[in-house]
Amino acid sequence: MRFVRLTHAGTPHFAQLIDDARALLWTRAPWEGGDATEHVVPVTPSALLAPVTPSKIVCVGRNYRAHAKELGNEVPTEPLLFLKPPSALTGPGANIPLPAASARVEHEGELAVVIARTLTDATPEEALAAVFGYACSNDVTARDLQRKDVQFTRAKGFDGFCPVGPYLETEVSPDDLRLVVRVNGEVRQDGRTRDMVFPVGTLLAYISSVMTLLPGDLVLTGTPAGVGPLLAGDRVEVSIEGLGTLENVAVSRATPHSATSAS
Ligand code: ZN
């Protein structure tokens, strides 16, 4: 099943896709005990929001060897965790505001995981069984600020630095999915999730040994090689096999909202 979150009659709703053009509204998010209603609504790209409202966004750094290497970093011996604030979340079609504080903002296409059930000290098997679904995401990063600050908080935390979407897919295995990032149509990143240093179940189990993962929490699983700059006007697309394409446009922070913004 595919789930989206969309604005209908001025209100955000979770909804189950019927096809590309129609969705069935749900009472609440499926992981919050929601149920399907009988209300079918049209799906328009401009109505789509990020398909999740997490209590936290947990990210994993340097989880693909070639990417760790391209930035001159060692491959970590255990998962390298950091957080993005939920305020960074944005939806498909929304603009990514480029902050004035950074001269080098980069894309990081990543497989995103949404949690269905509370996880504390889980095994990898328990953790995988508690996944609700998967989506495309972009761990947008101010690379110059990341190098300058010891913490990743500022570099990863600007508003709009966490696009997710266009939908959550519940019936896909995360083990070996092709992930491609294009900027203005040109391929920048082309990797496979089988090349993760720590696979999804291991990551979730590790995270759950540090902090309880709650239903609806979002985990970004690291980016393959090929990260590069986003300039104002650039259109960035993250495509993952079976998960569609997440498209956003980078804009200067002075004009963070456009008529086509979905946020
Ligand atoms: Zn990342």
How many β-strand stretches? Answer: 20
Per DSSP, what share of the residues sits in E-state strands of 2 or more residues? 35-45%
Major sheet description:
12 strands, mixed
Alpha-carbon Rg, integer: 17 Å
Terminal CA distance:
24 Å
**What is the CATH superfamily of the largest domain?**
Fumarylacetoacetase-like, C-terminal domain
Which CATH class of the largest domain?
Alpha Beta
What's the domain count?
2
Bound small molecules, which ones? zinc ion
The SS-based structural class is mainly beta
- Percent of residues in helices comes to 10-25%
N-to-C series of helices and strands: EEEEEEHEEEEEHEEHHEEEHEEEE
* CATH hierarchy: architecture of the largest domain: Alpha-Beta Complex
Low-confidence segments, ≥5 residues, pLDDT <50? none
- How many alpha or pi helices? 5
Net shape: globular
CATH topology of the largest domain: Fumarylacetoacetate hydrolase, domain 2
Q: What's the average pLDDT?
A: 95
Can you characterise this structure?
With 263 residues, the protein is mainly beta. The chain has 2 domains: 49 residues, SH3 type barrels (Roll), CATH 2.30.30; 201 residues, Fumarylacetoacetate hydrolase, domain 2 (Alpha-Beta Complex). Strands 1, 2, 3, 4, 5, 6, 7, 8, 11, 12, 14 and 17 form a 12-stranded mixed beta sheet that branches. Strand 1 and strand 2 form a beta hairpin. The protein binds zinc ion.
